[in-house]
Structure formats: structure tokens, C-alpha cells
Design brief:
globular
Length: 598
């Protein structure tokens, strides 16, 4: 297993090589090393040392990557949060983690006012203007974080040898009270990086395309940290949304990408919106890898046939660093509809009495291996509940066939997986119940071929007709990140419950599926007023906030999910089919109306 010294020496021997290509900049390993040394000086100035904890919250990817790399080489544990994390959840995590330092965008510090109890280092908020003239004026007015960092003397990182130190604490999705901090040690991380290296043939010449969110394990650990481990190059050329699908895919051939990692939802988008079939025909390309959830088998096979490329699937959780069970890349571990076979990880499938299940008999999946986390941060009870004689209980239901292939068949835990993100229903329920008019609520995921599941909530009001969907969704935006806001709200008279008074989720799911299927329309022509009404329903905003000139990126709720949902709605009521080019070209409601009326 490599040491920190091995990894640091390797990246310092290839200083002229490209480390990362981001949307608006390219970073050489020389620049990364300089930033690591300056950040090491900053940490020394703040008294941060090996074993301490740091939280990083910024929209600037270069800042996040450089600061995390520095914590890594200094034995400091890092927690990365997205700037979209709701304030109440962020402050709850900060209180749990008790960091020695918070690195934070100044725009958030102006709102949150974290000074006093915690040491805070703020950086200038990222400039969004793409104009070179505006950029020049912005630089004259405001120092960048790199300029500010120059005030700290360069210092070589400490490179501790203790592999039992914690390098990352990743907080699971959950309510403000039960979000758990998953402690990943250097031993966990380094051993699993070696597994990934051997499994997918990563080396110094690899070029990895991965633009998943850095605040999530697959974005951070299988992105910049995997690149650092292998002294290879990372590519994050654009935001991953509908409008950038073609730019994202063209990067593969243009930059001679060897490995592409993404989530099932993006692969579904690619299947529908990609203009060509030859993106992966380059002789340099090795592996297309799907993470953070099972890919729908129909989409899986259809994409492989269209692009003549195998799609490998990694099964893992926050608690396993990044993986543990692999479908592919080799024939002996690959079978459609399964998560493959374990590599460098032991598994058990057990029944309610913790006995091993027979072939093709469903039970809970348990894992054991060097990559399995050690404990939840300052949460001995959750740690105890999650382990049995050294085996980690995943909460996933699975079967194993005669050939050893594992299939996930369900979940013991109430967890929604939507677009590659894990959402705990209790967190959504907690936010909705903060509204005075809500008496009861139950949240669950309904099946969706593109998003795996979409979040829906059944709401019982204290008094009928006192609240509408738009008002309640607006309320949710104050407490939840955008990806956790329910896509649909169903106001019902009462929740179905069992004898013990607990919500009968299977019965509720049946009810909501029936309600969602009733929303069918015959083929009709739409006008401006009707389009605005449908858009308001899909984006979950009041129609008074929309006009025919409302645009993508400027309208609440008009994200990739909202975009495709509105297109699908228009197609269902008009009988028209939009081409991929039309879908990606739509920037406003007026564009959409033109295509729908053509």
C-alpha cells in the first residue's frame, strides 16, 4: 500500500504535467504543489495540525480541490459541503464536527455569521461572468483566493505515516439530528484506491472525466483524489446539465479521455440527448463507469448497443470509500441487471436470524474489508447498530446466484436514491412539518427510469384547502437543498396506517402511483397561458412568477429534472416528439412554445 510520502514524491516528480482541467482553467501539478504549500502555511498560521478537522464550503472547485489535497497530505480530516446545503443542516454538521477551521465563501459568511465560536477563513465568491473584460475589472476590484493565499509562507506538508488517522468525514443525508459522519481513515482510502487502480487499470497516463459534485464521495474521491493517487489527469469541463451533454461527451474524444465516471441519471440523459454514436470510439478510451445506483437494465443494454461500449457498474456506499462490488470490467464479473461480484471485499447475505441465505434467497447484504469505514464520528450507538461481529450491515436487500453475481432487490432502510443522491425521507418530512398548516406527512420515492426514483410527499393538512403546492414547495426551499425538494406533493385526507399507527408505506406507494397515473391528457394544442401554467406546475412555483420569456438558469425549479419533465409533459399533451437538438436548444419558454406549436 502506498504511503503519503510515496504519493507526494510522485506528484512532485511530474510538475509540468496537467493535474486538472476545469471549466475555466487548467492546473498543472506544479501549481497544485504550490497551492498545497501555501495552504500548509495557512493551516500552520491557524494552528491546524495532524488529527484536526476542517470543513470546506465553496463554489470554487479549484479552491476546494487544492484545500482538500492539503488536508490529505497533512493528516487533517476534511469535510466538504455544497454551498446549496441548507443553513440549518450546515450549522448542525458544523456543531457535530467541531472543526478547528472552516474555509468558506464570503457570501455565505455574510449570511451565516460563523465568527466567534469557530475559526473561519473566507474567500472571495466565485465570479460568474464569462466576459474577458468583466473578468479583468473583477480582478482589479477584488483579490482572488490565490492572491490572498500568497500572504502565507509556503511550507511542505507533514506527510504523517499513521494510516489510522481520519482523512475524510463525509456526512450522510439525514435530518439535522441524525446525519452521521462517516470516518474514512487513510488505511481505508489508500487500500481502496489500489483496488480501483488494479480493477480499472488506472495509471499515470490516465485521463479521468468526472464532473460529479465534489461534496459527494464519488465526485471527490473518484475525482481529484483518485487523480492524485495515480498522478494522472482529471477533467471537469462543464456543469452536468441538459444543455451541456454534447460538450461533456465531445470531451472524451477531444481530450483522449480514458475513463468516464457518471451516475445512471446522466447516462439516461445521454441516451436520449446525444447526437452521435461514436464518442467512445477513440483507441484511448478504456472504461465507462456508472456509480451511485443501479442503472435501469433496459437503458443499460440500449446504451451499450448504441455506443458499442460496455458500461461497468460500481456498488458502494459512503461507508465503503467508493465501492466494493463491481459489475465489470472483466467478463467474469459482468452480468446485466446485477452489481457484479466483490473485489477485495468479503460479503454475506443474511436472514433475520443472521444466518447465511441460500442461493437466490433474499437477505441483507453485509460487507467486510479494508475499505470499510471504522465508525461514525462521535456516534457510538449508530456505529454499534451498523456492525455485527466486524461485518457492516448495508441495509440493502440482495440475492446471490449460483455464479456468484449479486442482485440488489430492495432496501431495509427508508432511503430514496434520486439522480445518484441519497435522500432520507425523514429529512424531507422534518422540513415539511415545520409549516404550521401541515398535520402529517410521509415521503417516499416512486420508480422512474431516468432518475431511479423521484421524491414525492403525501401531506395531510390541519384544515382542508388552507395550503397549495406552490406555497409548501416555497417553504421547502428554505430548509432543503434543491435535490431534496419533492417533485410532487399529494394532499390527502389521511395516511394509510397499520394497527400500531405506523404509516403503511407499501400501501401509500400504491396510492400515489395510482394518483400519478391519473394525470393523463389527450393530444391538444397549447398556447402561451397553458404553457406557463404547466411550467409553473412542473417547476413548482406560482405562475405569476413566470412569463413567456422565463429562461433556464434564471427560473426557480428549472434544472435538468425540471427541463426534461416539462418536455415530457409537452410531448404527452401535444403528441409531438422533440429531437435531442431541440431539447438542448431550448433556453426559454418562448423557445419551447415555438417548438411545441411547429
Amino acid at each position: 500500500m502506498k504511503t503519503l510520502t510515496d504519493i507526494y514524491d510522485r506528484i512532485t516528480s511530474c510538475l509540468s504535467k496537467t493535474f486538472a482541467v476545469l471549466e475555466n482553467e487548467t492546473i498543472k501539478y506544479r501549481e497544485l504543489k504550490t497551492q498545497i504549500n501555501h495552504f500548509s502555511g495557512l493551516f500552520s498560521e491557524y494552528g491546524i495540525k495532524s488529527g484536526d478537522r476542517v470543513i470546506i464550503i465553496s463554489d470554487d472547485e479549484s479552491f476546494v480541490i487544492s484545500s482538500v489535497a492539503t488536508t490529505f497530505f497533512n493528516g487533517i480530516s476534511a469535510t466538504v459541503l455544497t454551498t446549496e446545503t441548507a443553513e440549518i443542516r450546515t450549522k448542525s454538521i458544523i456543531k457535530q464536527a467541531q472543526p478547528k477551521l472552516i474555509l468558506l465563501d464570503e457570501k455565505l459568511q455574510a449570511i451565516w455569521q460563523l465568527n466567534g465560536e469557530y475559526s473561519v477563513y473566507t474567500i472571495a465568491s466565485k465570479q460568474k461572468s464569462s466576459s474577458s473584460l468583466m473578468k479583468r475589472f473583477s480582478r482589479n476590484k477584488q483579490k482572488s483566493w490565490r492572491d490572498s493565499l500568497q500572504s502565507f509562507n509556503q511550507q511542505e506538508p507533514s506527510l504523517p505515516s499513521d494510516v489510522n488517522l481520519t482523512c475524510f468525514i463525509n456526512f450522510t443525508s439525514g435530518t439535522t439530528g441524525d446525519a452521521k459522519g462517516v470516518q474514512i481513515t487513510y488505511h481505508n482510502f489508500l487500500s481502496h484506491m489500489e483496488t480501483l487502480k488494479q480493477t480499472f487499470s488506472y495509471d499515470e497516463e490516465s485521463k479521468v472525466l468526472n464532473n460529479m459534485i465534489l461534496a459527494h464521495a464519488d465526485g471527490l474521491l473518484q475525482g481529484p483524489m483518485l487523480a492524485i493517487y495515480n498522478a494522472c489527469s482529471l477533467y471537469r469541463p462543464c456543469n452536468m446539465d441538459v444543455q451541456h451533454i454534447e460538450q461533456f461527451l465531445n470531451t472524451v474524444f477531444r481530450e483522449r479521455i480514458t475513463h468516464l465516471l457518471t451516475v445512471p441519471t446522466i447516462l439516461s440523459f445521454i441516451g436520449r440527448l446525444a447526437e452521435h454514436n461514436d464518442y467512445f470510439d477513440s483507441e484511448d478510451f478504456k472504461h465507462l463507469i456508472s456509480v451511485a445506483g443501479m442503472l435501469d437494465i433496459n437503458i443499460w443494454q440500449r446504451l451499450e448497443e448504441r455506443f458499442s461500449t460496455r458500461i461497468n457498474n460500481i456498488y458502494g456506499l459512503t461507508e465503503t470509500v467508493a465501492g466494493g462490488i463491481f459489475c465489470g470490467p472483466n467478463d467474469e464479473t459482468f452480468f446485466h441487471g446485477t452489481i457484479g461480484k466483490p473485489i477485495d471485499t468479503e460479503i454475506r447475505i443474511v436472514d433475520n436470524n443472521t444466518n447465511d441465505c441460500d442461493i437466490n434467497v433474499e437477505g441483507e447484504l453485509w460487507l467486510k474489508g479494508e475499505n470499510i469505514f471504522t465508525c461514525y464520528f462521535n456516534n457510538s450507538q449508530s456505529t454499534k447498530d451498523s456492525f455485527e461481529n466486524g461485518w457492516f450491515k448495508t441495509g440493502d436487500l440482495a440475492t446471490r446466484d449460483k455464479q456468484g453475481f449479486i442482485r440488489i432487490s430492495g432496501r431495509l432502510k427508508e432511503l430514496i436514491i434520486s439522480g445518484g443522491f441519497n435522500i432520507h425521507p425523514a429529512e424531507v418530512n422534518e422540513a415539511i412539518l415545520r409549516h404550521d398548516e401541515v398535520a402529517e406527512v410521509a415521503t417516499l420515492g416512486l420508480p422512474d427510469p431516468d432518475w431511479q426514483e423521484v421524491i414525492v410527499s403525501a401531506v395531510v393538512l390541519k384544515n382542508k384547502n388552507t395550503l397549495d403546492s406552490n406555497t409548501l414547495i416555497s417553504h421547502c426551499r428554505d430548509w432543503l437543498e434543491p435535490k431534496k425538494i419533492p417533485r410532487h406533493l399529494y394532499f390527502i385526507d389521511q395516511l394509510p396506517k397499520g394497527d400500531a399507527g405506523k404509516v403503511n408505506l407499501p400501501k401509500l406507494k400504491e396510492m400515489l402511483i395510482c394518483l400519478s397515473s391519473e394525470d393523463k391528457s389527450t393530444s391538444i394544442l397549447i398556447d402561451e397561458e397553458m404553457l406557463i401554467k404547466m411550467a409553473a406546475e412542473i417547476f413548482q412555483v406560482d405562475s405569476s412568477l413566470l412569463s413567456i420569456n422565463s429562461k433556464v438558469g434564471e427560473t426557480p425549479g428549472w434544472d435538468s429534472l425540471g427541463h426534461l419533465s416539462l418536455i415530457v409533459k409537452i410531448e404527452s399533451v401535444t403528441g409531438k416528439t422533440f429531437t435531442p437538438q431541440q431539447i438542448m436548444a431550448i433556453k426559454s419558454l418562448v423557445n419551447l412554445l415555438e417548438h411545441a406549436s411547429a
